[in-house]
Specification:
mainly beta, Thrombin, subunit H, seven-stranded antiparallel beta sheet, six-stranded antiparallel barrel, 15 strands, 11% helix, 43% strand, globular
Length: 228
């Protein structure tokens, strides 16, 4: 007897999880995901580019401990096994950063890469989003979350999502039920009507268009074919 069929969200989460990695420095932990893969002829190896939240790696010093572990735990990248370089944002407006990993072996098959929402499109209010990450309260367990896009933050521009961003989930991808990435989980904005009372708030997500523009203008490459 075959098992129950997976719904679209389960299939999307499974697909996106293949590019997900736990990131750990000597002081912080969070989530990262691969967005670009290329052969590196100059170094006879492979280069993979990861996106994450800048606040996870903002204090990182080159040469300090840094590791990336795949969601299934099958592979770990660290400064002993490959060359890892943190690329901070060119502007302080967005809480996103890149990590370049150069290795002798391919870190993941290029077919694993998931599409990004086209750089000239933004998700509408009411859109359903899912996101994946590694909450610190159950670290290193991978968890899936889901919510609705409630609105927009103007300065800096961000999606406001009716959902939670627990510590450790920062840097993870937010995506639709087809597995197209809409943005990068940034932070949680709590609702504190008084100093003593904290109510459910909103999650802030950096639109993938901001990351796509940064990569296109600074690195002169397009991450991967955009999805409509």
């Amino acid at each position: 007897m075959s098992g129950p069929s997976l719904n679209p969200w389960a299939l999307a989460a499974e697909r996106v999880s293949r590019v997900l990695f736990r990131i750990e420095t000597d002081t912080k932990a969070g989530t990262a995901f691969a967005i670009l893969w290329a052969e590196d002829p100059s170094k006879h190896g492979f280069a993979t580019l990861f996106a994450t939240a800048n606040h996870i790696v903002a204090d990182y010093k080159q040469g300090s401990p840094l590791s990336l572990t795949s969601a299934d735990g099958s592979s770990t990248l660290d400064t002993q096994a490959c060359t890892l370089t943190v690329i901070p944002p060119s502007s302080g407006d967005y809480d996103i950063a890149l990590i370049s990993a150069t290795s002798e072996r391919s870190i993941l098959p290029p077919s694993y890469l998931v599409p990004l929402l086209s750089h000239d499109l933004y998700a509408p209010r009411g859109a359903q989003l899912g996101w994946l990450g590694f909450p610190s309260i159950v670290w290193p367990e991978l968890c899936f979350f889901q919510g609705s896009l409630s609105g927009y933050l103007s300065e800096p521009y961000a999606y406001l999502v009716d959902g939670v961003a627990i510590n450790g989930v920062s840097g993870g991808p937010a995506f639709n039920n087809e597995g197209t990435v809409f943005g990068v989980v940034q932070s949680y904005i709590p609702n504190r009507p008084t100093k003593e009372l904290t109510l459910p708030g909103l999650m802030a997500v950096v639109p993938i268009a901001s990351l796509d523009h940064w990569i296109s203008s600074s690195l002169k490459v397009r991450p991967i074919p955009a999805a409509p």
